[in-house]
Amino acid sequence: MTQESPVIPYFRYSEICGVDQDRSLSLIAGAIKRGAFILQDELVQFERALAAYVGSRYAVGVANATDGLELAFRAVGLRSGDEVLFASHTMVATAAAIHFAGGVPIPVDIGADHLLDAGRLEAAVTSKTRAICPTQLNGRTGDMDAVLTLAAKYELSVVEDAAQALGSKFRGRYAGTFGAAGVYSFYPAKLLGCLGDGGAVVTDDPAVYGRLLELRDHGRDAEGEVVRWGRNSRLDNIQAAVLAARLEELDSSIATRRALAATYRRNLENIPQVVIPPGPDGPDGDHWDVFQNYEIEAADRDRLRRYLAGHGVGTLLPWGGKPVHQLRRLGFDQNLHRTEELFSRVLMLPMNPSVTDEEVEYVSSLIRSFYR
Ligand SMILES: *Cc1c(COP(=O)(O)O)cnc(C)c1O
User: Fold this and answer.
1) Which atom of ligand 1 is nearest to 93's Cα?
2) Cβ of 56: how many Cβ atoms within 10 Å?
3) Cα 304 off chain centre by
4) Which residue of 62, 99, 185 sits with most ligand 1 atoms within 8 Å of its CB, as the best mutation to test the pocket?
5) Which of 187, 292, 319 to mutate to test the pocket of ligand 1 (most atoms within 8 A of CB)?
6) Band of residue 4 on the pLDDT scale cut at 50, 70, 90
7) What pLDDT was estimated at residue 3?
8) Which of 101-134 are b and which e, b meaning 16 or more Cβ less than 10 Å from the residue's Cβ?
């Protein structure tokens, strides 16, 4: 009798989002019973808990992180035609938010850790540059000292796309809290997922906070008077209730991801055809990575991917295989050599709280035998 080989999908939505199904259902039932759906207590409580978790003064729940970024750019005063520098290895959402806030998204190349290369920012600064939007990709917070130094030199605002980095830190400080505002996503597959779409913006600046509250609610102030153009982009009360409960388990789910990353590292670090991501550093290191994703570089990537699929292992190409600056139909025409080189080799391996250590061992052994 042959042993059945395991099946390891890239993500298990119903398993991961259904772990606490009974609790979620009772929170939903409670909200229905009280008729509490929009801008109610659970939202306020979640916003407080989120701000306390990352150490920011304020948090504002929004419909999703894409909206959160757009509102954050508007709240920090981006004006029509202002240029915003961002890493091309990010979701198109980052650039779309800049675009819809009236700005011009300017993609910049990446460094060895796949994040915005701060050393390349300065060359991209023009008289129109107004802001930098670093994406804290894959659960890693980049070298923010370098970004903040450059931002100070040219008087640029920093808005962090921390959609993939809630809980991640650089030198003890949480992703999302370095600049004028930071944005998290609660899409189900993100580190802290809700049962649908959700997002939040954090800031320490009372003026930015006030504008965010208005912008997400039709431009209405606390008295209900319309004081500016606004959007409807509120985080549902039901989602906020689920998120508040799940936030309490975020650190343990991060610990699981970091342990899986350590196992991947042990197994893959000596394979010459594979480059693994940095970390996990220990608690005293500069980077506290939370491994939203485990993104490797692999020689002969497409064949490896098919080989893994043939053995039941799901993998993913980031953004369907294209960085933002290659979305030519959006008007981008840059060439960014390092990003392009990476995208011929990049591959995302299963990494989420439903993955077991044995499964990482299995995936790793397949990769070893592929290159043997
Ligand atoms: C998921 C993601 C977004 C968008 O988040 P939504 O909540 O789905 O709008 C933006 N940027 C990055 C880097 C992301 O991974």
Assistant:
1) 10
2) 20
3) 26
4) 185
5) 187
6) confident
7) 61
8) bebbbbbbbbbebbbbbbebbeebbeeebbbbbb
Q: How many CB atoms lie within 10 A of CB 193?
A: 21
Counting atoms of ligand 1 from 1, which one is nearest the CA of 135?
13
Residues present in the chain in total? 372
- Give per-residue pLDDT as tens, 141-155: 999 999 999 999 999
Residue 227 has a CB neighbour count (10 Å cut-off) of 13
Rounded to whole angstroms, the Cα distance separating 355 from 294 reads 12
Atom of ligand 1 nearest to the CA of 66: 9
In the 3-class helix/strand/coil scheme, how is 65-101 assigned residue by residue? HHHHHHHHHHHCCCCCCCEEEEECCCCHHHHHHHHHC
Predicted local confidence at residue 2, as pLDDT: 52
Instruction: Find where tokens 């894409």 sit.
Output: 66
List the beta strands (DSSP E) in the chain.
58-62, 83-87, 104-108, 129-133, 157-161, 169-170, 173-174, 181-185, 199-203, 274-275, 287-288, 294-298, 346-349
| Separation CA 225–CA 228 (nearest Å) | 9
pLDDT tens digits, one per residue of 255-306: 999 999 999 999 999 999 999 999 999 989 999 999 999 999 999 999 999 9
User: According to the model, what pLDDT value does residue 231 have?
Assistant: 98
Residue 247 Cα to ligand 1 midpoint, Å, equals 18
Of the pLDDT bands very low, low, confident and very high (cuts 50, 70, 90), residue 340 is very high
Around ligand 1, the residues with Cβ closer than 6 Å are 64-66, 90-91, 93-94, 135, 161, 163-164, 185, 187, 197, 199
Taking the centre of ligand 1 as the mean of its atom positions, its distance from the CA of residue 193, in whole angstroms, is 12
End-to-end CA distance of the chain: 26
What pLDDT was estimated at residue 19?
85
What is the CA(93)–ligand 1 centre distance, in A?
6
Tell me the CA–centroid distance for residue 96 and ligand 1, in Å: 11
